[in-house]
Amino acid sequence: MDNIRFIKPADLHAEMLRLHREEQMDFLKCLSGMDWGEPADGDAPDTPRGLGIVYLLESTVTGKQAAVRTATLDRENPELPSVSDIWKAADFNEREVYDFYGIIFIGHPDMRRLYLRNDWVGYPMRKDNDPEKDNPLRMDNEETIDTTTELELNPDGTVKNKELILFGDEEYVVNIGPQHPATHGVMRFRVSLEGETIDKIDANCGYIHRGIEKMCESLTYPQTLALTDRLDYLGAHQNRHALCSCIEQAMGIEVSDRVKYIRTIMDELQRIDSHLLFYSCLAMDLGALTAFFYGFRDREKILDIFEETCGGRLIMNYNTIGGVQTDLHPNFQKRVKEFIPYLRGIIHEYHQVFTGNIIAQQRLKGVGVLSREDAITFGATGGTGRASGWACDVRKRHPYGVYDKVDFKEIVYTEGDSWARYMVRMDEIMESMNIIEQLIDNIPEGPYQEKMKPIIRVPEGQYYTAVEGSRGEFGVFLESHGDKTPYRLHFRSTGLPLVSAVDTICRGAKIADLIAIGGTLDYVVPDIDR
Questions:
Q1: What is the DSSP letter of 389?
Q2: Which sequence ranges are marked TM in the entry (predicted)?
């Protein structure tokens, strides 16, 4: 990443508004909290210091990209202007930064923690914080708070607190989740109902607490790879592909064409695997148990192929820095070439049993509409964005692997409803098979692993790499200070933008529609609560 521009906090909002309006930077790709520490003697003038943010922006009109950073040296009361009124994606992202770094965003309408308990002491992603010191193991439940704080900037530069009520005493509020079957992972939605109609939704994402980004700061680069498969576990290959590519790009490592072909094929098999599970779980959510068994039956065949080469079915541990863990199993090509005609010949049964079902159509068509503008401003990429008419496929926008050598269609629908989100993924299964067919007989000879040093040090700098995951753009933001461990490793979740849009999508829908909408958004919760 070249030329990250520093903007003083006082000028940030005006400059971000200019970038959005004049340079059409309508897509906030990544917002990463940072702790650059205290100023030190001998610092170069442009050395980042303090608590701050790195913003990565892109224009969906011109394709131009920009990187901006800002910071405050006040660690006791760190304040930065919010950009949540410019991009809706900043809403949850700024709450995440407040939760982990304690940065207060002036103008943000909801300054509550997003993941940690309300009574958590300290900010665990700060370099000088010891989370265990002030937070003993608590066996009691946290108190649910129905008020939040908005901080407004007065004309004279002072800040005033404005208390907002989330749910009043007269509202009827029900919990959806955090039990897994309700929300595709341990996610809690508090839903205010007027009869059966949804009035508003408050999402609580903090029921996993993996701390993966924090753990990465004390691990060597090869050790960090083990954690990526466990984020979105239905995009394990793709997640790890992104991190390996980011490190390789930073170190100037060029992997062999054989590795590029293998990684691309594995990514597409993973996409089919994920979409088959999406089909199965959505069908089960809506009561179609036969369809559920169809999808699981055929997904097993992909997992068998993975297991033979990688040794794993869900957590694959396959991509490495400079290549892949082991060469393809001798049966790999044969089994893939048998699987594709099999799935292509049987997928019509999926459509007969579910797609053509009048109940499924009535539950999905016209339900949970997300406009193209909202998809972009929330950063809802992947099948969700493409169902709303936004051509956001990373494989087309910024080709990697061997996607520039294959011919495939980007599946785009314009309705933006649950039905369109469903059909995008069903059509993408066919496109993934087309991609694999073009590659499977043309895998070139060559090394499957480049020779690497025993200890890997990434050159000093900031780097960002993204891939098209099963659910959208999965990005890796890396800041290195030249050590054998990353200074900061932030993963752009594919699911957080989807969950942040749930309130907008569901307002006015029926409570039963929330289940259909959640199923078609297809978020995976461990990817959100990193």
A1: T
A2: none
Residue 272 predicted with pLDDT over 80: yes
* CA gap 487, 35 in Å, rounded: 9
Q: What is the pLDDT of residues 229-268, one digit of tens each?
A: 999 999 999 999 999 999 999 999 999 999 999 999 999 9
Average pLDDT, the chain: 93
Same-domain pairing of 357 and 240: yes
Q: Give pLDDT tens digits for 5-48.
A: 999 999 999 999 999 999 999 999 999 999 998 887 777 767 78
Domain count, the chain: 2
Please tell me the distance from the alpha carbon of residue 106 to that of residue 161, in angstroms, as a whole number.
10
Residue 201 one-letter amino acid: I
Structure tokens at 221: 């680069």
Q: How far apart are CA 357 and CA 346, in angstroms?
A: 17
CB atoms within 10 A of CB 210: 15
**SS3 of 89, please?**
coil
Rounded CA gap, 284 and 278, in Å? 10
Please name every residue paired with 113 in a beta bridge, in sequence order, or none if there are none. none
Domain boundary among 81, 105, 132: 132
Give residue-wise pLDDT tens across range 415-449. Answer: 999 999 999 999 999 999 999 999 999 999 999 99
Report the alpha-carbon distance of residue 223 to residue 402 in Å, rounded. Answer: 27
Edge-to-edge strands, sheet with 172-176: 172-176, 188-194, 197-204
Strands 461-468 and 473-480: antiparallel
DSSP H or E stretch at residue 10 = helix 9-21
Phi, psi dihedral angles at 482 (to 5 degrees):
85, 10
User: How confident is the model over 371-405, as pLDDT tens digits?
Assistant: 999 999 999 999 999 999 999 999 999 999 999 99
Q: Is the dihedral of CA 294, 285, 418, 497 positive or negative?
A: negative
The range of the structural domain enclosing residue 438 comes to 212-442+458-529
User: At which of 107, 132, 157 does a domain end?
Assistant: 132
The verdict on whether omega for the bond into residue 178 sits within 30 degrees of 0, i.e. cis, is yes
Instruction: From 457, 422, 441, 470, select the one nearest 241 (Cα to Cα).
Output: 470
From residue 486, how far is each of 227, 454, 489, 510 by CA, in Å? Answer: 14, 16, 6, 46
Residue position matching structure tokens 């949540």: 84
Q: Tell me, what's the pLDDT at 1?
A: 67
Q: Is residue 388 part of a domain?
A: yes
SS3 305: helix
Residue 145 located in a structural domain: no
User: Distance (Å, rounded) from C-alpha 409 to C-alpha 430?
Assistant: 10
